[in-house]
Amino acid sequence: MRRVAILLFLLSCGREEVLNEDLGEFKNMTVYYEEIVAQKGDVFSTLTGRLTGVPDSLKGTFLKYLTDTVRILRIGDTLRAVYRGGDIMRLELRRKNVVYEYSPLRDTFIRREKFRPLTPQKAEVEVRSTLWEAFVEKGLPPILLVNVSNLFSWEIDFSTETQKGDSLRVLYLPDGTVYYAEYIGKSVGRHVAARFMGSYYDENGNSVKRAFLKSPLRYYRITSRFGIRFHPILKRWRPHHGIDYAAPYGTPVHSVANGKVIFAGWKGGYGKVVIVKHKNGYTTLYGHLGRILVRRGQHVQQGQAVGLVGSTGLSTGPHLHYEVRHFGRKINPSLIKSEPEKPLPEDLKDAFLTILSEYHRLMEKTPKYVVVK
């Protein structure tokens, strides 16, 4: 029962929140990490400043070691903080061919070749009831399920779209790092996520990330869909312009895309509401919140918590009412077709395909080594 409670908490959080919230007992169970990948224009000092779980004093020490070595970051360079039991085990800067590591506990700094051999593990599970139960049956770590769910969160809604007979194959490390994952579902088809230079891509080199997440909640059940329904309070048939998700009080509600908060407050029957404006004419509405976590004018990132599930306004119990509008017209959220982020540059395609081929080989036999990317 304790493992189930921990998993439900993890699934209700975004990946960064999993790393930054106080996980209590879970922190003593496993190794976990906070990772930031450099984008165009990033510099080492600003990238280091984004590590939320590392004290400023340790950030300063790490910067001092690398000031003369790292002047310009390249796209894909990865900064990682590795934790265990609440302690910071090491800070890493992972570049194309080298890794710089600092261990605060031993106060040691080393430089090593990036392509050291590691022994990965592979797992193949078949869904009989839920993906969680399939993981429990195999004895797989909960953090692995969290990471796999996050990887496919743009394409698969694991609360509603998994079916008996669906299968998952994954290549991973004990700390939950996923190198390769392949999900085959009766309703969602086949989806692949392969790790390369700190990010994940499908087999064609397209980023697995999309402009919109499939759902603003990680764990829920749908109680009302888009269309005509009988209103439980007003006692009459009327259009329902969104999707209602039943979830426990206090469940984090995530923005499905990057955007700007244009409303945060009370809005009639919706109760406490957050409305976020996105690019290309889209807005999303999150209603009946118990608590609002953002303010009007604030810019939010995809997956960022904007509120907590409640039962304010015209509501009979804790749930989220979620709406999407396109240039002011209300549309069915489940029908949004979200485009992927930019694909891999052509000059990196050959290196990616080499790594992908190795992942395929490892999945087809007992693995010996995998290249760390």
In words, what does this structure look like?
The protein is α+β, with helices and mostly antiparallel strands and 373 residues long. The protein has three domains: 2-6 and 14-114, Nuclear Transport Factor 2, Chain: A; 121-209 and 341-371, Roll (Nuclear Transport Factor 2, Chain: A), CATH 3.10.450.350; 221-335, Glucose Permease (Domain IIA), CATH 2.70.70. The protein is built from seven helices and 24 strands. The chain has helices at 2-11, 15-20, 44-49, 56-66, 131-138, 142-151, 346-364, and strands at 31-37, 78-84, 87-94, 98-103, 108-113, 117-118, 121-126, 167-172, 178-185, 189-196, 199-201, 221-224, 227-230, 237-240, 243-246, 252-254, 259-266, 272-277, 282-292, 299-300, 305-309, 319-326, 329-331, 370-371. Strands 12, 15, 16, 17, 18, 19, 20, 21, 22 and 23 form a ten-stranded antiparallel β-sheet that branches. The chain has a five-stranded antiparallel β-sheet with strand order 1-2-3-4-5. Strand 8 (167-172) and strand 9 (178-185) form a beta hairpin. Helix 1 (2-11) runs parallel beside helix 6 (142-151). The longest helix has 19 residues, at 346-364. The protein is globular, with a radius of gyration of 22 Å. 35% of the residues are buried. The model is unreliable at 1-29, 226-231 and 366-373 (pLDDT under 50).
